[in-house]
Design goal:
single chain, 22-stranded antiparallel β-barrel, seven-stranded mixed beta sheet, 15 helices, 46% strand, elongated
Length: 961
């Protein structure tokens, strides 16, 4: 019996070995003949593969009979496919260095692999070689040089990408996928840039779609899509380490330090793993625009020193009020003393397990933790402190299908906004209920206090006989209040002021007691309590000194008050939100006629939101779950898409039709179709013309639906369940501009009602025409023009309720907005290994002002993008062995900026970046010296944002394959 079992085992093993063979070989550089280490070698249409060793040698087991294709790919070299068969015992391969990109495979445009030249819509990319040769201290900054891209930078570690206009810092119209995961913070609905991105050692490739991608990727890809792909441990093995040291040269010279480590190992043909850890630490750029008015359209271009000046980066001066028919703002405090520190840092750690179920299917389980601190700018400037996200993903990828599910968790508890901190330490005209004791009873009466009452005391002349401050002297009154108000008075002076104020304040106290306590003898109570009342009034007309001494130092009392406000008061950025996502995709192309493709996919996601950005007490019960004292918002999104393409005209044209349907808990289903044509102009497949038409949409963000951030102007989410409480929609508010004009001219008839509808999704219609052409493998040209029409555009605008309270609600604009642009990019191999590349970009918008309804006279759609932008780069990856270099230039035109933070102008700027690298093959190392903004042309990318200076950095990268 044992012999029979052994016989059957022998037969099965022998049968499994039939058709198997081993191919050995080497991979070398075509020009120099040097061995290439770490070349990826894969069997065509399978997951079977290996990499070349330190001598360029490889060995691969092939489990099928007959002739097969082996694909060779290596960073900076052209891909090569070699046919092998059982008779090929030794295969020697020569790879040619790639200077011009053009034949690369991309996936973002159609969600399947296709040639870069044949993509149906505009697509940009950065491969591993581009990332390694970047002059920037952060590879994410290199995205800004791609065609059609602009960026905003509110922090050294938080760079926000934008395409096609309507920019903001924290771009909710742009989708960023990190290994297929939406890495937007669930409560914010925008990507956090490189702060939460893939580490530099683990990034493999970046693809960018500068335009709507809703038809395949859903509602968040309204204006663009960025795909970040990390290295697979089967393909990229070994130990990697990186140390980065540098200096940031802004208003001061500060250190920059970064470290990274990566280890990946293929244990056998089925199992591999990787781990990553990376950190960066620096001092953040500083925002120091103290001389510009924060919002000019409503109040004019006011100079610093005017009583109602509101400085861009001064805080506490946002609230305007009148005293004796004079408009005031409290003196603001500079950003640098309100911050606890200027630390800009990021820590990222992740691990992944990969398992090949068979030669066509690979499963992976990964976990990532990212922690960051820096600055973020929206309605206010926010200090982000220890904000963290966690990602847990299970993914199965096969040749024709994939399935993934992931969970994203965001946590924050240490952040704060600067306006609240600056205001709360010495507020203007707050009205308190003051406790007073009368005949054994505790009475409370209202009293105005703060900086404004100190100004009032001086303007009314009450301090003339005490401090010699003349009445009606605005400058002297402000100086008195700024220096601490009545804190400057000694006991004798307080008693003198008490005698002056008692008869003046007595009528107010009498009126308050009569109204609130009619059962009391109000005259007796008022005369008895007037001393208590007036002393409290004098005490409350004080605060810490707001002005520095002659050496520029602020008082310890002020600094202590700021620290206390950070710890206890103001708006604290807290967040405990989650996102669960599950999706599947299947490609039926292998079952259809050759050249015909059909893909289908679907996804479901749930938002579980708990954040200080929301005050969820007015929602419909169906939308919330009560968990102890917390109220969580639970929202669902479900979507499905299909894409069909087929060749036409002897396979020289490809027609592709995509369509997607999405449904959100709070909104009706939305359909997003896309039709595209790609035409091959020549027989050699070097020139292609493309055109596409698509409809896209975007659901309002979580903030756009549920925001209720109390501040100088309360941000209000526009969902009826949230916004109805404030009574400012459907004609319940005036436009802020008309309200302020009515006050200035003392004419209530100037107030104009603004009718706001409760919020719903916005829509975009886009047409694009483009051309890609390769000339003698030396010059690649990519040109495109596009035009879009936006309907129900989501916007924020200042309004005033009919009770006189300022709000900043989210709503849909009741007119169409048009935007258009063109882009021209090129890569040119000018001589041997020298390459010149660059792009020119034009972007603009308009709308019909005659169609604006009443109340929208000051409407600005916040396009916030330069009309013109140019980039150019001169690179040589083999300047002198082992040196390579890159010189990069960028210029963009100035433009108007409008946002909930402020309205102003972002000036034009130009920068030059440079890098020089040395590749030390024998040490498996790359040493790079880089300078960003070589000439230190200081600039801003966002109104109110930091002034960006120069960065020097030296990076050592070690990779053992």
């Amino acid at each position: 019996m044992k012999s029979l079992s052994f016989f059957w085992i022998f037969i099965c093993v022998a049968h499994s070995l039939i058709g198997q063979y081993v191919v050995n070989g080497s991979v070398k550089d075509y020009s120099s003949g040097e061995a290439l280490v770490g070349v990826n070698i894969f069997l065509d249409n399978s997951l079977i593969g290996t990499i070349s060793d330190n001598d360029g040698r490889f060995s691969i087991n092939i489990n099928t009979e007959g002739q097969q294709n082996l694909n060779f790919s290596y960073v900076g070299y052209e891909d090569l496919t070699v046919k092998v068969s059982p008779v090929d015992n030794e295969v020697n391969v020569l790879l040619t260095q790639q200077i011009i990109q053009g034949d690369e495979v991309v996936v973002a445009a159609s969600r399947i692999q296709e040639s870069f030249l044949k993509s149906p819509i505009t697509i940009e990319q950065l491969d591993l070689s581009d990332i390694q040769q970047s002059a920037s201290h952060d590879y994410y900054d290199g995205i800004n040089r791609l065609k059609g891209v602009t960026s905003t930078q509110a922090s050294l570690v938080f760079n926000s990408i934008n395409t096609r206009g309507f920019s903001s810092h924290g771009n909710g119209r742009f989708l960023q996928l990190q290994d297929g995961m939406d890495d937007s913070a669930p409560a914010f609905n925008f990507p956090m840039g490189s702060m939460m991105g893939i580490s530099e050692l683990d990034i493999q490739k970046i693809e960018l779609l500068p335009g709507p991608a809703s038809a395949l990727y859903g509602p968040n890809a309204y204006n663009g899509l960025l795909l970040l792909k990390s290295k697979n441990p089967f393909e990229y093995q070994g130990l990697g380490a990186q140390v980065k040291v540098g200096l940031t040269d802004g208003f001061s010279l500060d250190p920059l330090v970064g470290t990274s480590i990566r280890y990946a190992k293929k244990l056998n043909d089925q199992f591999a793993f990787k781990i990553n850890l990376s950190t960066i630490w620096a001092q953040d750029w500083e925002a120091k625009d103290y001389n510009s008015q924060r919002s000019t359209p409503l109040y004019g271009d006011i100079e610093r020193g005017i009583s109602h000046f509101d400085g861009v980066n001064l805080y506490g001066d946002e609230n305007r009020f009148e005293i004796s028919n004079i408009l005031f703002t409290r003196t603001g405090l500079p950003e640098d003393i309100l911050l606890d520190n200027r630390s800009a840092r990021s820590l990222k750690a992740d691990a992944a397990l990969h398992y090949k179920l068979n030669e066509n299917t690979e499963a992976s389980l990964s976990y990532k933790y990212a922690l960051g601190s820096g600055m973020y700018q929206n309605a206010e400037r926010f200090a982000i402190r220890n904000f963290n996200q966690q990602f847990l993903k299970w993914d199965v990828q096969s040749k024709n299908w994939n399935f993934k599910l992931y969970n994203s968790l965001s946590r924050a508890g240490g952040g704060y906004d600067l306006t609240s901190i600056g205001t709360n330490i010495y507020p203007t005209n707050p009205r308190f209920l003051v406790p007073l004791s009368f005949e054994g009873e505790n009475l409370t009466v209202p009293m105005e206090s703060g900086w404004s009452t100190a100004v009032q005391l001086a303007l009314d002349g009450h301090l003339n006989s005490i401090l010699g401050i003349p009445g009606n002297d605005v400058a002297e009154a402000i100086t008195f209040a700024d220096q601490g108000g009545t804190n400057q008075l000694d006991e004798e002076q307080i008693n003198r002021l008490l005698d002056i104020l008692n008869p003046i304040l007595l009528p107010d106290l009498l009126e308050s007691i009569s109204a609130k306590y009619p059962e009391l003898n109000s005259e007796l109570a008022a005369n008895t309590l007037i001393d208590q009342y007036t002393i409290r009034y004098i005490q409350n007309s004080s605060g810490p000194s707001l002005v520095p001494d002659q050496d520029g130092n602020y008082s310890p009392e002020l600094l202590a008050a700021i620290g206390s406000a950070r710890d206890q008061g103001g708006f604290k950025l807290e967040d405990q939100s989650n996102l669960f996502h599950i999706e599947g995709f299947y490609n039926f192309g292998h079952l259809l006629e050759p050249g015909v493709e059909l893909q289908v996919g679907a996804n479901f996601r749930r938002y579980n939101l708990l954040s200080s950005l929301f005050q969820p007490y007015f929602f419909e019960p169906i939308l919330i779950d009560f968990i102890e004292d917390d109220v969580r918002i639970r929202l669902n999104e479900v979507g499905a898409f299909s894409q069909f393409s087929l060749p036409l005209i002897n396979e020289r044209m490809r027609l592709t039709l995509s369509a997607r349907i999405d449904k959100h808990t709070n909104f009706e289903a939305q359909i997003s179709p896309r039709l595209s044509l790609v035409f091959q102009v020549d027989q050699n497949e070097n020139h292609f013309v493309r055109s596409s038409a698509q409809l896209g949409f975007r659901n309002p963000t979580s903030q756009g639906q549920y925001a209720s951030v109390i501040g100088n102007r309360t941000n209000v989410g526009g969902l009826r369940a949230n916004a109805e409480f404030y009574e400012i929609y459907e004609g319940g508010a005036w436009s802020a501009a008309s309200y302020l004009r009515s006050i200035q001219q003392d004419d209530p008839d100037l107030r104009k009602t603004i009718v706001l509808d409760y919020i719903k999704p916005e829509n975009i219609r886009t047409i694009e025409i483009g051309y890609k052409g390769m000339y003698s493998k030396r010059l690649l040209i990519d040109f495109s023009i596009h035009g879009s029409q936006h309907e129900d555009f989501i916007h924020q605008e200042n309004v005033v309720s009919k009770t006189g309270t300022f709000y900043r609600p989210y709503f849909n604009v009741p007119i169409s907005i048009n935007s258009w642009g063109s882009n021209l990019g090129f890569d040119w191999k000018i001589y041997k290994t020298w390459k010149l590349s660059g792009n020119a970009n034009y972007l603009d918008f308009n709308y019909n002002e005659n169609t604006l309804p009443e109340g929208f006279e000051n409407f600005n759609p916040s396009f916030n993008s330069p009309t013109w932008k140019f980039t150019a780069g001169l690179t040589n990856k083999k300047l002198l062995n082992p040196l390579s270099m890159g010189l990069f230039y960028q210029w963009q035109s100035g433009f108007d900026w409008s946002s909930s933070f402020g309205v102003g102008f972002v000036p034009a700027f130009a920068t030059i970046d440079f890098q020089l690298s040395a590749k030390l093959e024998s040490f498996n190392s790359l040493i790079k010296f880089g300078v960003n903004n070589l000439l230190k042309n200081e600039y801003i990318t966002i109104y109110g944002g930091p002034t960006i200076g120069r960065v020097f950095h030296l990076t050592w990268t070690y990779e053992q394959l």
